[in-house]
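User: Hey, my collaborator sent me this sequence without any context and asked if I could get a structure. I don't really work with proteins. Can you help?
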Amino acid sequence: MGERKASKDGDRKVGRRALLIGGTVAAAGSAVLARDELARLWWRAPGVEKPRKEGEVDYAGARWVAASDANWRRADRPDDYGIDMVVVHVTQGSFDSAVKAFQDPGHRAAAHYIVRQDGHVTQMIRELDVAYHAGNRDYNERSVGIEHEGFVDRPQDLTDEMYEASARLTARICARYDIPVDREHIIGHVEVPGTDHTDPGRHWDWEKYMRLVRRARTTPA
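Assistant: No problem. I've predicted the 3D structure and written it out in structure-token form, which is a compact way to encode the shape of the chain:
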């Protein structure tokens, strides 16, 4: 499962930069430029966010179960942070234990989705928001995290139903944010810089998974 890595508050730094830019332009006496700059950066200002509906999911067919709000950060992606990556995880436990962990405010980590061994998909964090799943702030802000039920040392846990359901989910995420379907943009947790995790593990069949994602990417939703 993902971990959170503490760092500076980049959102506030961007907000201050927006104000400085606006102030500089105004001081120059260019009202038009100031208006255009503020229009471009309005969504980075604190307190501005997209409309939301309780229980709404981003992936058709997913079941919504909310993670603790201590395990993610509210955002307005992809406007404030561009999404260009999917990170694949394995839960190192059962589906139920993963849900319980992500609902625990003391866990301090959660992924956007969990895919069960039977192919059922649960969404716990909106794609709009930054999930603490990768153990790296930059990767958290630019990625969607998908957990898969099972253990990295049990190849039998990685079922065909899980691969296929996850591939369809990843394909839709890639389509939504125009993410290339390749191994530079669809990665394992182990590939995140600075992480101490090994998932999805040596038994994860990347060749099979990427083939399924590419096939799903070209299949009408």
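In plain terms: Helices lie at 10-27, 31-41, 95-102, 137-142, 160-177, 206-217. You can pass these tokens on to your collaborator as they are.
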